[in-house]
Amino acid sequence: MTSIESDTEVATRLEFEESQRSEGWRLLRAALRMQRRNLLLGALVGILWASFKVAVPQMTKYAINDGIEKNGPLLQWALIIGGLGVLTGVLSGMRRYIAFRESRWAEMKFRERLFAHVLNLNIGYHDKAQTGQLMSRASSDLMQIQGFIVMIPITLSNVIQIIAVTTILFITDPILAIVALIPLPFVNFAARRFSHRIHPASIAVQAEQAQLANVVEESVSGVRVVKGFGAEQVQFEKLEKEADDILRESMKAARIRSSFMPAIDVLPALGLVAVLGVGGHRVLNGDLSIGDLVAFNVYLTLLIWPLRNIGMIVALGQRAAAALVRINEVMTTKSEIVEVAQPKQLPMSSSETLGAVKFDKVVFGYNLDFPVLRNFNVEINGGESIAIVGATGSGKSTIARLLLRFYDTQSGHVFIDGIDVRKLKLSDLRQQIGLVFEDTVLFNDSVRNNISFAKPNSNIQEIERAAKLSGAHDFILQLPHGYDTVIGERGFSLSGGQRQRIAIARAIVANPRVLVLDDATSAVDPSKEGEIRDAMKTVMNGRTTIVIAHRPGTIALADRVILLDDGKVAAIGTHDDLVVSNARYREVLANMSTVNAAEKAAN
């Protein structure tokens, strides 16, 4: 029974590998069709190159037979050979230029398509995808495709060269040509076997490289956590394991290549030995001229590199096909958030204040079996501020994600200004909602560009106004270059509170009709919290604001407070009223105060 199961598993695995290989080659052919015109131009240049390359041994034969043996115009033949060499060199340069131009163009287009597609995928995909895996596909996998495409015009010209040389050899002396070319069928057999063996090895190497990239990315992005826990050795051991895995898989691929490439060198050399043996006797017998024998040997040497090139292009093709399969896994992933064919437009003017938000009978869970929100109903008037309070994991941040359509509800609807968010164009929806995350992300750019991220054409007056409203202006002026100071990757050169104030300024510049502050004061020093609250009060005035907060002082800024419990609205009222009337609200606040005190002590 075990043997039968094992055979079945092997058959399944082989079938899967064959389907992967076929899919990879299909994608590669589709990619090459987009560049067929320029690749054909490269092939045409390659044909001319091969023609001149093949002509040199013929001219050498005439130089020996006519210029040396018959005391003919040797200088003339030398000049002709030199001219052909110059033309061959020029065409070789053109061939390589076209090859590299097309390969880099293809790499650029693939990278742009992949990057655009990844950005368009829904947040749920990114929550599960490994950053290192995506980076590997966008870098090393694309390099494999580029490396293959660059060889196509070169390989086509080499194939032409093989055909031309073979034809000339048979015209010159059919018997000697047969002797010289006997190894070629064995080369073809070896190439086919090599192709089937190298494909799974190539996939394994690229998969391991992606794992290594993931470890590096996590270690670098989380370097503060690594150092904070003294876990450098732990991460090094992870990297060492992945590096060893790459070495192991690479050596498997190297052993496959090392068993094939020597055959490419040895088999043509055997043909050369046969030509010297058989051809030498024919020269001595007067059946073959010395020039023909020399030309014959030169032609055989011209076959060695093209035959090696066949092995190289097969290996590169297999790696490119494997890379395309991995890239296609991302490119064929469909976003779960889909726009309607004819989106509606948000109202731009109204007798009432814009920014009304409504959650109507919303049910949602990241896992369908465990809903986070259950029959969630809330109406927020335009210009009103609402604080959402609840225990950890109660679904507070989920509300913001549904409003922005990072996720869609399983049932129920979310409206903004009376329009279901699913009927709006995503860019229109998100441009009207400013979001400040709990985990602030800034970019390795100037303070000015980080604040104007959503509106790059903002003038300095708009940027400074937003910074003043968020309480960031004063500390920005103290930076080495003020608003032009580059703040480093993720803004870690700033304190947590400074990063969050810049993030609030970024949301203000966007001038959204709805502002969502997702625990935006959590990293602010308590001594500065009063300043931030005053700034937030100014920002929130007349603007629909959803505040997800843990600190009572921030919660009290809102016109109304919603107590979220077990995925439902447990109570609605002002902060003061709920403190007096709702025991569960007091309990949640007490728990949050304990957490805040612990965080303060830790800082």
Could you describe the 3D structure shown?
The structure is a single chain. By secondary structure, this protein is α/β, with parallel strands linked by helices. The protein has a domain at 31-331: Up-down Bundle (ABC transporter transmembrane region fold), CATH 1.20.1560.10. The protein is built from 21 helices and 10 strands. A 6-stranded mixed sheet has the order 6-7-8-3-9-10, with helices on both faces. β9 (560-565) and β10 form a beta hairpin. α6 runs antiparallel to α11 and α15 packs across α17 (496-509). It is elongated and about 120 Å long. Mean pLDDT is 80; it is low at 1-5.
Strand pairing plus helix content: what structural class?
Answer: alpha/beta
Strand content: 5-15%
Uncertain residue ranges: 1-5
CATH H level, superfamily name of the domain at 31-331: ABC transporter type 1, transmembrane domain
Write the layout of secondary structure elements.
Blueprint: H1 2-33, H2 36-68, H3 74-120, H4 123-128, H5 131-149, H6 152-172, H7 174-181, H8 184-221, H9 223-228, H10 232-284, H11 290-331, E1 357-364, E2 373-380, E3 385-390, H12 396-403, E4 411-416, E5 419-420, H13 426-431, E6 433-436, H14 447-451, H15 460-469, H16 473-477, H17 496-509, E7 514-518, H18 526-540, E8 544-548, H19 552-555, E9 560-565, E10 568-573, H20 575-581, H21 583-602
Helix pairs in contact: 1-11, 2-3, 2-6, 2-11, 3-5, 5-8, 5-11, 6-7, 6-11, 7-10, 8-10, 8-11, 10-11, 15-17
